[in-house]
Amino acid sequence: xxxxxxxxxxxxxxxxxxxxxxxxxxxxxxxxxxxxxxxxxxxxxxxxxxxxxxxxxxxxxxxxxxxxxxxxxxxxxxxxxxxxxxxxxxxxxxxxxxxxxxxxxxxxxxxxxxxxxxxxxxxxxxxxxxxxxxxxxxxxxxxxxxxxxxxxxxxxxxxxxxxxxxxxxxxxxxxxxxxxxxxxxxxxxxxxxxxxxxxxxxxxxxxxxxxxxxxxxxxxxxxxxxxxxxxxxxxxxxxxxxxxxxxxxxxxxxxxxxxxxxxxxxxxxxxxxxxxxxxxxxxxxxxxxxxxxxxxxxxxxxxxxxxxxxxxxxxxxxxxxxxxxxxxxxxxxxxxxxxxxxxxxxxxxxxxxxxxxxxxxxxxxxxxxxxxxxxxxxxxxxxxxxxxxxxxxxxxxxxxxxxxxxxxxxxxxxxxxxxxxxxxxxxxxxxxxxxxxxx
Length: 439
Description:
single chain, 439 residues, alpha+beta, 6-stranded mixed sheet, 6-stranded antiparallel sheet, 16 strands, elongated
């Protein structure tokens, strides 16, 4: 609605919904001590300059009519105030968070209907902006002529976030209450500085990264891949990786770290492989990002938190399987590996041989080897050693047992062989690992 249109409108005893929205917008622009502002709309309104807009208040006042996310992000720059009246319920949380990451305003004003098609809610919006270091400081509710309820939530960036020079990051790393089948270990979000790099290094668990915005480069096994928004990559355990944010358009990513006997079997049915540990433009991008947020919101060191996070993790991984275009791994091979993994988890303290495991499963040693290679990408012996080493890490961190006692508890022939295997897997001795874990 333009200024002329508003001034020539016939007088009426009933104020229109558009007039109320402009009244709210005028109030927002007058209220906040901001030097610049950006007002976003989705094409349903003509953003002219209605009567009452503050003149001379802002160094910059942009009114952007947007229909596609890319158009907005390419135009917006740092703003003190971001107004997104009714936009959120048309574009959704992901679109909104991309904008706030790019613009990083001091104030954010959001208006949306109490009941809307995208199920935007107060709790959902508050939790997402809380993760981005914003605090809710004002809430208003207004009845519209059409019978709908309009909710206005106003946020301000926390003082620590507005002055911090560190990359915007929120993460959770819990105590490793490891479930045998699958466990979520850490989860978080990070908006990286230009050329921010991790590695080269290895991890002892899987970590999936989902690129939310920007771009960067992943290096693995002597190869390199450039990834951008909508892509994802996975770091495999005990495999050297490094990844670096772009210099001009550094990425923001969400991640989830996990492990367990089901992990490799599930991942074998996705499009991830050790030779190509990335997927470009995944179809279930929005749902996967939402699941990572749900896992983050369920975080905690209680056993109930562990169960809740793991349940959500299974749902997340199922989306990668739905998106997979490769032939599924043989269900027979998966059954053999699952039975073997269960047997190992219950008997790893005994001096197991691969023949013992194969006899339990009811297959030959060579058949078991082929099944593990197909499903897990490693041999049964490598899996057994890796399982024992992970249990060793837990005992070194949480008990005062001697290295010899731990070796005997985990089925190793002697402490010398255990120390050699541990160093090979973790690049340090058991004693060095224990000292580092206590720091």
